[in-house]
Amino acid sequence: MFTLDKYVEQDYSVVYFHCGLTSKNKPPLSWLWRAYKAFDRKYKKNLKALYLVHPTNFIRIVWQMLKPAISVKFGRKMMYVNYLHELQQHLNLDKLCIPDAVLE
């Protein structure tokens, strides 16, 4: 994670494309929770937005379950994006490496 230090000293956004996951390659909830806890305050502080692109109902339910344990401030930074044109309202898509499976 130390390689991210130079990026998180300024405002930044994270885009998560929820695509191509199956029961075989989907991380367990415990891993997601550990990943959240592993991020030091400095990583959360300058995060301006976390975009979840193509969220499934499962993701929405998990988020609702985890919400009470996550800081309110962090929770406000999370946004569901159903379509790429919605993401384009917030970010320049030309600057993103979007997987082909997401573009289809």
UniProtKB/TrEMBL annotation:
<dbReference type="GO" id="GO:2001136">
    <property type="term" value="P:negative regulation of endocytic recycling"/>
</dbReference>
<dbReference type="InterPro" id="IPR001251">
    <property type="entry name" value="CRAL-TRIO_dom"/>
</dbReference>
<dbReference type="InterPro" id="IPR036865">
    <property type="entry name" value="CRAL-TRIO_dom_sf"/>
</dbReference>
<protein>
    <recommendedName>
        <fullName>CRAL-TRIO domain-containing protein</fullName>
    </recommendedName>
</protein>
<dbReference type="Pfam" id="PF13716">
    <property type="entry name" value="CRAL_TRIO_2"/>
</dbReference>
<dbReference type="GO" id="GO:0005737">
    <property type="term" value="C:cytoplasm"/>
</dbReference>
<feature type="domain" description="CRAL-TRIO">
    <location>
        <begin position="1"/>
        <end position="104"/>
    </location>
</feature>
<dbReference type="GO" id="GO:0007264">
    <property type="term" value="P:small GTPase-mediated signal transduction"/>
</dbReference>
<dbReference type="GO" id="GO:0005096">
    <property type="term" value="F:GTPase activator activity"/>
</dbReference>
